[in-house]
Design goal:
single chain; alpha/beta; about 35% helix; binds flavin-adenine dinucleotide; D-Amino Acid Oxidase, Chain A, domain 2; about 400 residues; globular; FAD/NAD(P)-binding domain
């Protein structure tokens, strides 16, 4: 009889894990407390970014973050509150925001990301219903200061073997023919790709259905039965489910549920916003980041999505901060003068919680305490990018196989 695997969390990390485990012939069940039609894995910017090798915890981030905290339209914000979780997270972040950490993180993230891209290519060859495209990613800037930072980051990516082109203003104009770009130049990461996240989630669900994976939406996992160092059952609001293995993929909600699995995890949600203009005719053709405002721009089939801001907050903070959405809109109109985007209505503005660890690194590992528990959380702003590779690693770790890429940095 094949092993019963219970995956807690049906976001992109949970579903990719389910895919690779089911492919190995295991009996997989996914539990999610929502109806699995929305959440962080749906409204994100859809970028697959091997170029993003520098984790959020990096030198200079704390000083920059403090400066931004006094600007209500800024792209990064830590919501101040008296909370031991926030203090612990902040202290850990401070300890990781150094060059040594970045140097160790970069090759690990590159390898995970390139593996993911290969796996996305495989999916796309099978059925590209999710509009996977390889146009690279343009980092666009308007100031000499940011140009120097972007050139420096480009050099780091180049040293790691990634495709990088440094573009003048004229070269940007030649490449981006969809609309006028008012910039002084750009860095083009040619190894990057993008897709339509909602369509990819739909594709995954279809694949899982064909593989016979059981998916329980609207089913909240409340606890576990643990006997002799093993999780033997998953306790939900719909009853108890016997299990042989558990995968924790609960995104921003992980710390609380992890405690029930004897794991102490520091992780906070990084709230971000996006809005999508449907069937927009004149629009940028190349996925871009408008660097001074940290706004992501992604063409997705006939639509275009704009996303941005990172508010380190808590899971009950479901409000839409209109000032920050204004910051996104102002940045778009400043970089693309011909687009002149209007403020989206509140109900047209999507938000999602990025699961952020203080090291800026995902956690992909076997638990030290419960031998049948595998953890896959904390992918912050790179969860879509890293999901297929994470799913593959989860299946390899769970089955005790050697892993496709080293996992030492994902502890
Ligand atoms: C504005 C924005 C833009 C982004 N752009 C990009 C991008 O371009 N590229 C990229 O790579 N990443 C991007 N990201 C990040 C990416 O979206 C996330 O890293 C990714 O979606 C996280 O996936 P996840 O499966 O870990 O978490 P989630 O998608 O949050 O899934 C976790 C699931 O667990 C469920 N759950 C939690 N607790 C329980 C419980 N007790 N019982 C049952 N179910 C439970 C939740 O309901 C949820 O569905 C962006 C994020 C934002 C906000």
């Amino acid at each position: 009889m094949s092993k019963k695997v219970s995956i807690i969390g049906g976001g992109i990390i949970g579903l990719c894990s389910a895919y690779y485990l089911a492919k190995e012939g295991l009996e997989v069940t996914v539990f999610d407390k929502t109806d699995m039609t929305d959440g962080c894995s749906y409204g994100n910017a859809g970028m697959i970014v091997p170029s993003h090798v520098i984790p959020l915890a990096q030198p200079g981030m704390i000083a920059q973050g403090i400066k931004w905290m006094f600007n209500s339209q800024s792209p990064f914000y830590v919501k101040p509150r008296l909370s031991s979780d926030l203090l612990k997270w902040g202290w850990q972040f401070y300890k990781h925001a150094n060059q040594k950490h970045v140097e160790k993180a970069m090759p690990a993230l590159r390898d995970l990301s390139l593996l993911s891209k290969e796996l996305y290519q495989e999916f796309a060859r099978q059925d590209n219903s999710f509009f996977y495209e390889e146009k690279g990613l343009l980092m666009l800037f308007k100031t000499d200061k940011v140009a120097a930072e972007m050139h420096h980051e480009g050099k780091l990516a180049e040293d790691l073997g990634l495709g990088v082109r440094y573009l003048s203003k004229e070269e940007v104009t030649k490449l981006e023919t969809g609309t006028t770009t008012d910039v002084i130049g750009g860095v083009h990461y040619t190894s990057d790709a993008h897709l339509y996240p909602q369509k990819f989630m739909q594709f995954l669900k279809q694949e899982l259905a064909e593989l016979g994976v059981n998916i329980y939406g609207n089913t909240e996992v409340k606890g576990f039965t643990i006997q002799n160092g093993l999780v033997t059952a998953v306790e939900t609001n719909k009853g108890s489910f016997v299990t042989n293995e558990v995968v924790l993929a609960t995104g921003s909600w992980s710390p609380e549920i992890a405690k029930k699995l004897q794991e102490n995890i520091s992780l906070l949600p990084g709230k971000g916003y996006s809005f999508t203009l449907k069937n927009k005719k004149a629009k940028p053709n190349i996925p871009s980041i408008l660097c001074e405002g940290k706004v992501a721009v992604t063409p997705m089939a006939n639509d275009i999505r704009f996303g941005g801001t990172m508010e380190i907050t808590h899971n009950q903070d479901t409000s839409i901060n209109i000032n920050r959405v204004k910051g996104i809109v102002n940045t778009i109109n400043y970089f693309y003068p011909d687009l002149q985007i209007a403020m989206p209505k509140k109900e047209e503005t999507w938000f999602g919680f990025r699961p952020c660890t203080p090291s800026g690194m995902p956690i992909i590992k076997k638990s030290q305490k419960l031998s049948n528990l595998t953890i896959a959380i904390g992918h912050a702003m790179m969860g879509l990018s890293l999901a297929p590779a994470t799913g593959k690693l989860v299946s390899e770790l769970l089955l005790g196989k050697s892993t496709s890429v080293p996992t030492k940095m994902f502890q």
